[in-house]
Amino acid sequence: MNQIPTFVYFFVFLAFLLVAIIFIAILIKFFGIWLRALLSGAHVSMFKLIGMSLRRVKANTVVDSRIILTKAGITDVSTDLLEAHYLARGDVFKVCMALVAANKANISLNFQRAAAIDLAGRDVLDAVRTSVNPKVIDCPDPSKGKITIDAVAKDGIQVKAKARVTVRANLERLVGGATEETIIARVGEGIVTTIGSSQSYKGVLENPDQISKRVLDKGLDAGTAFEILSIDIADVDVGDNIGAKLQADQAEADKRKFQAEAEKRRAAAMAKEQEMVALVQENRAKVVLAEAEIPLAIAQAFKSGNLGILDYYKLKNIQADTKMRESIGDEGKKKKE
Predict the structure, then answer these.
(1) 162 neighbors 234 (Cβ within 8 angstroms)
(2) Contact 69/75 with Cβ under 8 angstroms?
């Protein structure tokens, strides 16, 4: 019978030793987690813990989350669902805390919906808390730099209002629903519309609750992730007389318009005057030219025999007589003045 070589025993011993070391290492790493889950009633097999390690899933996070769910009486969430949510970069612990909070408050919320809310970027735990304890939103948002909503009534008086909106999270519409900013914008628009439709600012000051009633009746929470419970007007103040300012601005604009038109007419008149002066000068020049031709015409008449000496002196006498009468007329006018 052939004898087994010694080195074979040596390799077998090394193999058993390696397996023992690996087994001891696994026990050291996962035994505490496995035992904690077992004693908590949320048993997780050792093979699943090893699989989590190979898939780079934090076993502590998954096991602790499962223990929380089990202690809260939620047993329909498997470790596979928790692992899948972890691998999808979700917050497993926060989802489990949200499920526990919803279960204690008798709110219908399953793991699939909670995981979807978390993966959508919403704080699912805060959403559940808001469902249990309604949240108050300031309108407008002071962090945006504006502290009042300004609107103008029909009488031209500005009214400044501040509202507080009490909302409750709607878990069914949380995925794909509009955020708080939409609620603030819609409420602000409703307040502006209500004040703008008021006949007088006095009516708004006397009954500020009419603003909240009209705005609440419009169903502003449609398509949002919240349910509006109430809209309360926290403060109402009187602002500027916008109507008077607009009228004053319009009057000033009309004044500038009329001044511009008057200036335009004055410039046109001055231009016309200068044109007439130039025309007078032109006509005077024509008269001077015409008068310069008279001596030439008289000389030509003498040469042709059409004008005699006696006729020339008669013409001179007539001119002298005309000048004398004009001078006498001018002296009479001066005396009357």
Answers:
(1) yes
(2) yes
Q: DSSP character for 178?
A: B
* Interval 205-247: pLDDT, tens: 888 888 888 888 888 878 888 888 888 888 888 888 877 787 8
> Could you tell me which of 256, 218, 215, 251 has the C-alpha nearest to residue 232?
215
How far is CA 248 from each of CA 111, 244, 254, rounded to the nearest angstrom? 64, 6, 10
Read off the pTM.
0.59
Pick from 133, 195, 131: nearest CA to 163:
195
pLDDT single digits (tens) 171-198: 888 777 888 888 888 888 888 888 888 8
Domain range 135-239, CATH architecture = 2-Layer Sandwich (3.30)
Tokens for 260? 């511009």
- Model confidence at 28, pLDDT cuts 50, 70, 90, reads low
DSSP collapsed to 3 states, 71-83: HCCCCCCCHHHHH
Could you give the 3-state DSSP secondary structure of residue 179? coil
* Residue ranges per structural domain of the chain: 20-132, 135-239
For 215-248, b/e burial (b = at least 16 CB within 10 A) is bbeeebbeebbbebeebbbeebeeeebbeeeeee
Say if residues 197 and 234 touch (Cβ distance below 8 Å): no
